[in-house]
Specification:
Blueprint: H1 3-9, H2 23-34, E1 45-50, H3 53-60, H4 70-75, E2 78-85, E3 91-92, E4 95-96, H5 104-121, E5 125-126, H6 134-141, E6 147-156, H7 170-173
Antiparallel strand pairs: 1-2, 2-6, 3-4, 5-6
Length: about 180
């Protein structure tokens, strides 16, 4: 699959089949995430692979009941938990180097995007789940101090084919030379 096609056609999947994901495919996706760029190559992203149905159910309980990914968390064969070591991305000699502070969210987003596009390219579905009680998820997973849970990515074979959302025209989001200038 062409990369631009994968970018354009990937969808958030919330309904999954229960078919298992092979270790080979899982490792392919984790490799794609591993090769994402990061701030000064600090590589602060960490992954927890959760296959145990009981543990997936506990993580689902960290979502508000209205979260559309709630059922997906219990059905998928794998939930990938994206974590980040704090105080590395955007820091030099222990001090933040930009007015943005810790860049761990940016680095996780880059790795997660690589992973979700690679998943789509091999026929697997994903959805980014950020609306959860991250502190509770950290307790459930035994995440140490200095590491944060950023998002869940349910992973499995899609049991739906949602239509794509509309997108703003380039003329609405791209400016030339100065903001607001078309």
């Amino acid at each position: 699959m062409d990369l631009v096609e994968a970018i354009r056609d990937r969808r958030s999947i919330r309904k999954y089949k229960t078919d298992p994901v092979s270790e080979k495919d899982l490792n392919t996706l984790l490799e794609a995430a591993r090769w994402a760029p990061s701030w000064a190559n600090t590589q602060c992203v960490r992954w927890v692979v959760v296959k145990d149905p009981g543990l997936r159910a506990q993580l689902a309980e960290t979502l508000p009941g209205a979260n559309p990914a709630y059922n997906a968390m219990k059905v998928v064969p794998v939930v990938l938990v994206a974590c980040a070591v704090t105080g590395k991305a955007g820091f030099k000699k222990g001090e933040p180097t930009t007015d943005k502070g810790d860049w761990f969210l940016f680095d996780v987003a880059l790795a997660a995007q690589n992973l979700t596009l690679a998943a789509h390219a091999i026929g697997l579905g994903t959805v980014h789940v950020g609306l959860m009680d991250a502190g509770k998820a950290e307790e459930i997973l035994g995440v140490p101090e200095g590491v944060r849970v950023v998002e869940f990515i349910p992973l499995g074979y899609p049991d739906e084919s949602p239509n794509g959302p509309g997108r703003n025209e380039l003329s609405e989001i791209v400016f030339h030379e100065k903001y607001g200038q078309s």
